[in-house]
Amino acid sequence: MTDLLSIDPNLASPAELFDLGKVFFSGLKVQKDLKKALELWYISANQGFAPAQLALSKAYLTGQGLKVDLTKSFNWLLKAAQAGLAEAQFILANAYEFGQPYGEQDRDKAFDFYLKAADQGLAEAQCQLGFLYDHGQVVEQDLEQAVKFWILAADQGHPQAQNSLGKAYFYGRGIKKDLDQGLKYWRLAAVQGQAQALCSLGYAFYTGQGTPKDIFKAVAYMNQAAEQGNPVAQHFLGTLHILGTGVNQDYAKGFEYLTLAAERGLSAAQSSLAYAYFYGHEVEQDLVKGLYYARLAAAQDHPLALSLLGSAYASGQGVEQDIAEGLKYWRLAADLGDAQAQSSLGSAYISGQGLEKDPDQGLKYWRLAADQGEADAQYLLGMYFFNKGGDQENFQEALKFWSLAADQNQAYALYYLGDTFVNGRGVKKDLTKGLKLLERAANLGLDMALEKLRDLKQKLPDKKGPQRLDQKPDL
């Protein structure tokens, strides 16, 4: 330090001038003097020393020691990048990619400068090129190229690249699937506190993919990610606390986590809150809050939120009833694969609610929903084939769909399936099986099942009556 301070600025090299400027700029061992630092950097920068040019660019950008001037900041940054300084090339590439802070967006130039920096071994640039190839931005999507750049950056210990490489191995994107390698790179990134890697490890331990299931390790990793504000981890922990899975059940804490994730813009958390508040699920019903979160998630095309808004407008819950608006949201959700919206849209076509009746379209949407396991659509398809009648084939189709819905405790499906076995319509009569199905429907609160059971009990006085409705059915 003493040797550096004793240098005659008039005889110093550009590198020495830059280093001396850093001493005055930082105020380490000497009195801080921004003016002196900038004067030394000017001399060094005008002699073509790229690190000094970059330092001046940063000073003009932040206003440290001089007035903010984006034009001068950009010009010095460009000089440093053109001089071959990798850090400057990366910063300039980033500015061109996003159009900030200098206002000029040029993704072709961004790619060129990222490549220049990456060729010099700058891990940040290598990682970013991986992202560009992965998402097909600026260049045509090339997953193998993405992996190539992530390997270069990951080998230098870059945590984001390690996380991305972990995903590539774990899911087999751009490289042969290898769960062990995926977990290895996630662990390397997690040691550095990379939130997405922590979250991915948590999910792996939760599902048992590539590693034995361990709910406690899953929660521990998710907690670390959530503490950094990772919304996916916050949503996950919120769900676990509401369900009481791996943690003590705590609705308040669960909704606190969901709210944090929703405020960070995670559409899945916004949809979860929308559903909970709209239907009063584990929280006091609040239609205003439900619709608020539904609109936030719907703006991001989340299918559950779009479906919920469709139901709200179709029924007039929380909003003025508007069938056309409801159908609009249901179509959007159905096209995104939401089973509930497909079922509702199918019913609209069958009944002609707000549109011209079209049984073929109705059946199409019911089948789409039923194929995803949507119980109401399965029940409705059963009723369609039952009412169609005509031959045994239709009746067997009805039984098939009722059975699928009954397996999910769809009350009406349980009732009609139970009634079928009690009466032996199209199947071998089985009073015991029929009664059990009816009891399950009654325990779900279906009045017609209760009445049917009472009627059967009167007709079969010597038979063992149905078990108490507050008891769990004997399956």
Structural class, from secondary structure content? mainly alpha
Q: Would you identify the regions where 5 or more consecutive residues have pLDDT less than 50?
A: 463-475
What's the total count of β strands? Answer: 0
In helices, the fraction of residues equals 55-70%
Determine the mean pLDDT.
93
Shape: elongated
Order of helices and strands: HHHHHHHHHHHHHHHHHHHHHHHHHH
Largest sheet: none
Any idea what the radius of gyration is?
32 Å
Percent strand equals under 5%
- Between the first and last Cα atoms, what is the distance in angstroms? 83 Å
H/I helix tally: 26
Walk me through the topology.
Blueprint: H1 2-5, H2 14-26, H3 34-46, H4 50-62, H5 70-82, H6 86-98, H7 107-119, H8 123-135, H9 143-154, H10 159-171, H11 179-191, H12 195-207, H13 215-227, H14 231-243, H15 251-263, H16 267-279, H17 287-298, H18 303-315, H19 323-335, H20 339-351, H21 359-371, H22 375-388, H23 392-406, H24 411-423, H25 431-443, H26 447-459
Helix pairs in contact: 2-3, 3-4, 4-5, 5-6, 6-7, 7-8, 8-9, 9-10, 10-11, 11-12, 12-13, 13-14, 14-15, 15-16, 16-17, 17-18, 18-19, 19-20, 20-21, 21-22, 22-23, 23-24, 24-25, 25-26
Descriptors:
mainly alpha, elongated, single chain, 475 residues, 26 helices, 69% helix
